[in-house]
Amino acid sequence: MGSQASGDNDLPLLLEWSHLGSVYDHDVRFANRNAEDVHKDALAAALAEHERVREAALRAYELNELRQEQERLRQHALEEEERVRIEMERAKEECRLREIENKKKQIPVPAPRAKTPPPPRAPSPPVRAVQAPTPVPAQPAAPSTQKPATKPPAKPPIVAPTQAAPSNLFQSAGPKPAPPTQPAPQETVQSPQATVKSSSHTLPHIERYAEIHQTLKKLRAMIVNEGKRNLAFKKKTGEMRRAIRTSMGQLTGERGSNKQPMSKIVAVLKESFQVASPGVDPSMFMITKPEPSQQDVPNNGEQLPMLFIYLLNQFAKAAVAQFVDEAGVSPRAAEPIGIVVASMFSNPELCWRGHSLIDILMAKMRVVCPVLWGIRGSEMTEQGRARLGWKKDEGGDWVPEQLHNTRMTGLGAGYAAISLRDFSKSRFQNPWPPWHYWQSMASITSTPPSEASPTQYMVLKAMVENYEQRFFNFYGNAALAALRIALVDFPGRALQQGAASSALAVLADKLKRDKGLDLRN
Amino acid sequence: MAEAPKASGSLADRISQPPPSSTTSTATAPSATKGSEEPESNLSFAQVDGATVPLGGSTLHEPQYDVEVKLSDIQKDASSPLYSISSFEELGINPMILKGMYAMNFKKPSKIQERALPLLLGNPPTNMIAQSQSGTGKTAAFVITILSRLDYTQPKAPQALCLAPSRELARQIEGVVRSIGQFVDGLTIQAAVPGAVERGAKVESMVVVGTPGTVLDLMKRRQYDTSQMKVLCLDEADNMLDQQGLGEQCLRVKQMLPSIQQILLFSATFPDGVMRYAAQFSPSANEIRLKRDELTVGGIKQMYMDCPSDEGKYETLAQLYGLMTIGSSIIFVKTKESASRIAARLSNDGHKVVAIHGGFEGAERDEIIESFRQGKAKVLITTNVLARGIDVQSVSMVINYDIPMNPQNDSQPDAETYLHRIGRTGRFGRVGVSISFVFDRKSFQALSDIAKHYGIDLVRLDQNDWDKTEEIVKNVIKSSRAGTNLKA
Q1: pTM value?
Q2: Does Hydrolase appear among the keywords (chain B) (predicted)?
Q3: Does B259 lie in the same domain as B179?
């Protein structure tokens, strides 16, 4: 009877055979029939039977509860997944619309372009050739167009901005004619890339971020060129750049200890408004172009000083470098950097039309750590490594594995430090809200085992480690379900249990040991 | 950043190489080979390529189109001290210890670990004298050995002893034992440094990490039961055996361990004179040695700065932090006074600074080092106390504010100390920078003697044009990453 019961969880069945139990199994001989002992025995047996049935019922009830809870969680996870999917689709649609819009804007550009390119420039790569026309719309006057033509073919991209720059340097506020034309050629450069389709597992805007990254490189070249003509400007930008880098290096995890470096960075960034530099259209460095704000916000005009954007870019670069070099070895160092990043990019005085310029940093993150954007690749192939953001050294060889691991660890931790910031008590807007974190985690964990790479395991581990609590604070039970997938299911599916996937799984053990959180049940 | 590969030639070279392991794809289609010869010019191209990969469900799998990475690219330089082909699993390490290693982000054994661990873990236990460059994983190697030798049914009997020349180092090793052993059930660890064990209290941990003097005292007072001792390990062994007092103490400790099975000596340097003594201390040992010109790790980029005067050094120092990305840094100075003076000025400039020198007492020193290790302070200013062994992973710059000179003879440069100092950065294959300050004939001569001793080239930095210096430093760091990241 015992064996029969153990395998069975069904309540009605349990009750059915329970009557055959010991209740009627006592001594029924006449002499003893009414003896007290017999009576007591029968009572005890009845009690035991009652207990047994009750326990069985309770067990069945509990099981049912658990099942319902499980079902609820599963539903919840499904809903969440669905939500993310819809959100992503919506965002992608937006992206597509924007791209169409951009294309519309570009249409007029080709016309002047046909006139300008002087023959010697033909062999230069397309990217440069297209940039060359920049000065034309900017300065229709003949001399400026002539000048680049006389230069050797390699030079034009350098000459072009320098030509545009002086005219702007002396324009004060509201210079409408020149720079707005700049985004147009940039877009033409990128138009071939429009053919790059994002796969369904990649997050929106990846192409746009790559574009922004390229545009920033050009902006940097412009500043360098400006410095070649103007030594005082060069010295000043150098000092500002180094001041930002020094301050970023001074950050520590101690509460309240970062005031001095933070105010230094703000001061340097603000100072760039005082130094004369040409204006640029900030939307060149943003995913979406905001309309002028109806409220009284700082920087509501058409442009921002080029130097300001340059320094924001330097700030972003310093943050990423600090993630790579410092947080890669001690991931906790990412936290203060994330705080400063969120603080700078949410500061209204450093925003444009009330919108954060954090896309400048994200363009960089997108390039150095593509797996955060859902990009996949095999570490055993050349192209796969390139997709994963595995760096090459100067000799064109892949950097060693150890170095790559460290980089990815730092960047994963850095991304968590930026995206899991609590702005509920802040007057400012969160420049990179937590749903980005969720999105990245979802895109990584949804990788099929055959395409999953150690890089993904490492980035995921770095994103989760030390940030479990924050993640819970934002997402509650959903975070629990997500962590189960990230730390148990995803590494469990790995085709080969290597060090990277094992390290991810060990994180689950650590959570159990240190926080009493058992994800495996 | 996925920059463009420099030459398509090198790419073509790689194509001809068979796949290192046929786990994901067995064959590389010839057509695919052709396609990949087109210069993969930039990131956007990589993206195009990525997009052609069909999603799950399709029969076409991405590796068939992509070119396998040649093994020598994955592990470029076989002579690198971090080069290894095996994994920790293959070395047969206990899974619980392995878990701790993973939690610490160890992924693969380094060369010293790969070579030494099979010898260290083999039975019967054999002695070992091992030399390897700083920051290549010596500590982890002997900690794994110690944890593998313990009898876990005797949690209160000291079974392994690790000796280090300073309390900081002992504390650090204690930390490593705790980290690697974090998933090992029933492991007990204890430090035996001045002030850590109360008078009369018994030492009741399986692993003891300490300084020779304290350990010897504990044994003499019978607070330390040596009957179950199995492993004795000396870190920075040359330094311990070389110094009169320490060497004596080590020897007496050893004599009090009758049943010892395995004696391990580890260091980055083993001068010949010490080597003979070491062989007596650890008889019939396996030896892993390095040649003198293999001593410096290529990942540490060594530069020097021409300063206008002794006083002008500070201005230069303050500028250095803007030149490159720096996590933590250590500044070595000659005197306590200049340590305090520099600390005050750097703090004023917004740096979180701690200074440590012989003037501090034990517990205070522990605290200072701990705040540096945790990253609460990011600049550490110190006299020679710390030249050896201290491993703070995020140290990316070491500054010789004063060139190390021989303590017995101030006109002689101290090459060994220089090596140990710069070894505080560039840990485990990361890029680190060392910058030495020279300002007069004597300091210049001392530094060039050291450079000659190790056969290294020092890059000169200029403090007149910081833009230019920034550029030089950037290139130096880049080039040190280039291929020879760990030229042995």
Answers
A1: 0.69
A2: yes
A3: yes
